Amino acid sequence: MQDVKGSPLEQLVYVSRSVRAVNSAIGMSDILAEARPNNARDGITGCLTAIDGRFVQVIEGASDKLDDLINRLLRDERHTELRVLERRTVVERDFPQWDMLSPVLVTAEIDDLRRLMRDDSPGGLDDFIGPLQAALARQSEVLHEVQTLSAMSLPRASNDDEAEQTA
């Protein structure tokens, strides 16, 4: 697949070491707030998380836009030791609706990602995408349930209330 300018659609996964602690939601929200407008502008989607002081990010977009992003990330002072583990051309995106997000992970997903982030790990894109997509699917289900319960618990106007509103 190519974007509208003809650049191939690519996907990559990288890991890096955080300079500051960013394992909290607040730390991640600051990074995401900065990344989202730039990614939306450049047609980049993906998923970012931090575990044990290390970032892991899957990003996807036009190859020239990914090159630009990687060059910006290499100069970003929030992290060091950036290593691209795998980069490939893809037919479609795995995170098409997310200009960038950071899922809440359960212990099993954290353990999987922690193992994949080791320097001696042979893990590739598919290995990283699995736990991240599982976390997103779980979060989507929870959000849907919350929205459904919220809609069901909204107070409904009684006939007396309706009469007062029309009077």
In short:
It is built from five helices and four strands; from the N terminus they run βαββαβααα. It is of the alpha+beta class. The longest helix has 29 residues, at 125-153.
Overview of the molecule:
With 167 residues, this protein is of the alpha+beta class. Helices cover 47% and strands 22% of the residues. Helix 3 packs antiparallel against helix 4 (125-153). It starts with 8 loop residues before the first strand and ends with a helix.
* Percent in strands: 15-25%
Global outline: globular
Low-confidence stretches: 162-167
- How many β strands by DSSP? 4
Structural class: alpha+beta
The secondary-structure element order is EHEEHEHHH
Helix content: 40-55%
Radius of gyration: 20 Å
Biggest sheet features? 4 strands, antiparallel
What's the overall average pLDDT, rounded? 82
Span between N and C termini?
60 Å
Name a few traits of the molecule.
alpha+beta; disordered C terminus; globular; 167 residues; 47% helix; single chain; 5 helices; 4-stranded antiparallel sheet
Write the layout of secondary structure elements.
Blueprint: E1 9-18, H1 25-42, E2 45-51, E3 54-62, H2 63-75, E4 79-89, H3 107-116, H4 125-153, H5 159-166
Antiparallel strand pairs: 1-3, 1-4, 2-3
Helix pairs in contact: 3-4
